[in-house]
Amino acid sequence: MSDKPYLVEDSITGNEEIGFPVHVHYIELAKQYMQRIRWNWHAELEIIIITHGEADFLSDDKRIRLHTGEGILINQNVMHSIQAIDKDANCSMYNIVFHPSFLFGYGNTVMSSKYLVPILSSPAMRIIELSEHDSWQKKILDLSNRVISANLTKKYGYELVIKSYLCQLWTALLENVIPQNINKTKEITISMDEARVKDAILYIETHYKEQITLEELAASVHISKSECCRCFKRTLQVTPIEYLMKYRIFRAANMLQRNDPDAHSMSSLAFSVGFNNASYFNKVFKQYLECTPSEYKRKLKNDPASATEPFREFKI
Known about the structure:
The chain is of the alpha+beta class. It is built from 12 helices and 9 strands. It folds into 2 domains: 22-176, Regulatory protein AraC (Jelly Rolls), CATH 2.60.120; 186-311, Arc Repressor Mutant, subunit A (Orthogonal Bundle), CATH 1.10.10.60. Helix 3 (135-153) packs antiparallel against helix 4, helix 5 crosses helix 7 and helix 8 (240-257) runs parallel beside helix 11 (293-302).
């Protein structure tokens, strides 16, 4: 989970556009694992626009409430997550994912040095909230919606049209964001926390089947147990152990969905995702997913579509 964009099946075409490095996805949070897009980061820039409902965007030490019509722009390698506010009111959104090299080409060119580096290296550009109440932010939203529309209709030459919109969007960012004053000291602190948590998440995703202790997790990123807890709390608003438990339950639900051989019994499933006590595994599973593993397995058998969709995995 580091430098590859996650792939989401396109709801209109049913597959990813190959060869064109701008991807547009339609996402319903009710159809995602625990009604959220789990913590991720990637080398592409991302723009998210809420089309219905409300969602909380989480990153660094921030929690930003996004309403219908609002959006957010996320720079390269910024760790983030999105979660639904109301489980009974489905929140939907479009996201646009593109690599900046699409606009300026690869390599150290005059254009990239002049226009690309200032955006990618600016602490003020990590996260940009987008609201219709601000004229230049509204322009970003309008251009983003045009990118979405062009991607969905795919008329002849749409790739050139999309590149034109993104270049206009980039110009608006250069004109309105870069000159602003920033708090560099705070940004350095946040970046250190984020780097540590990213490494800890990678360790969890590699070793979640093992009996990971807080001491081992902290040692994997070369910090104390207390500092490890503070980093997770400041960055993800959960403890390291809470994140580990949620990830283990995610893997367990995913195994049930795929009818994995190791999921033939609940004790085997529990052991496969790092629990050495089936009773405790059942308790944690129900705590996060509001049903036991056996109940979820029956849902899969009786109505595969209704139970499978919430656990569709985002790859990054």
